[in-house]
Amino acid sequence: MVSTHGYAITLGERGRVVLPASLRRELGVRAGDRLILTTQDDGSVRLISARQLASELKGVFKDVAPERSWADELIAERRVEQAREDCGDN
Asked: Which CATH code is given to the segment(s) 13-87?
């Protein structure tokens, strides 16, 4: 279930918006944090912290990414190097 809360804010000079302290606490953001604001087709906006967005996107492509083991690649490279050294092909 999606929970929504309303906040009355005023657009300030130069288009600045101040987020109420209760909203900053709810979002877990502080001064200097990066925020992503997206517009929706219905004219509404969505605000999310960059940290939260990154967390949500983590692993989103895991089903399409090829299986890759850095350890296996490193071992394979070392074996090739060892074979070259054993053959004297420095």
From this structure: 2.10.260.10
